[in-house]
Task: structure prediction
Amino acid sequence: MKNKIGIFPGSFDPITSGHRHIIEKASKLVDVLIVGIGDNSSKKSFYSLEKREDWVKNTFKNYDNILVKKYNGLTINFAEKENAKFIFRGLRSSIDYEYEKQIAETNSVLNKEIETIFLLSDKKYGMISSSIVRDILKNNGDIRDFVPKEVKIS
Ligand code: ADP
Result:
């Protein structure tokens, strides 16, 4: 039997409840979902790659078909390497859509066999972003409503 493989790429700086919700939805559409944590040198991350990876791994430790891997370089190359046929991305708003559309179109030029699939965020997660979580933290606020319980900031 052929495995249907998808990837969900992102920075997860840190992972939020919005990410978790979209990843759970995506995992139901494929046999294997690989969460790819991008190590993007041009986008300086706030948390180390190791911390970001730990939090994502712990969040999905009880999910049989969700794997977590780090990658660098182009997302489309990561998808090819993993034999994925789908790239999942989440949409919160029309701003996300405009940005994501450009990336998806570029990726389809690079490899037209790999399809980008957009999943809509539920209303209750629509306002959550990693950057808002970082802002709350910088100001000593409580982030518990915005991130999975596995995200432990020390
Ligand atoms: P990137 O730096 O690649 O945009 P992010 O970690 O910020 O990585 O986001 C990864 C994906 O998760 C993107 O498709 C983004 O639109 C989506 N996403 C982020 N937050 C939410 C949310 N609250 N609801 C739904 N999708 C989200």
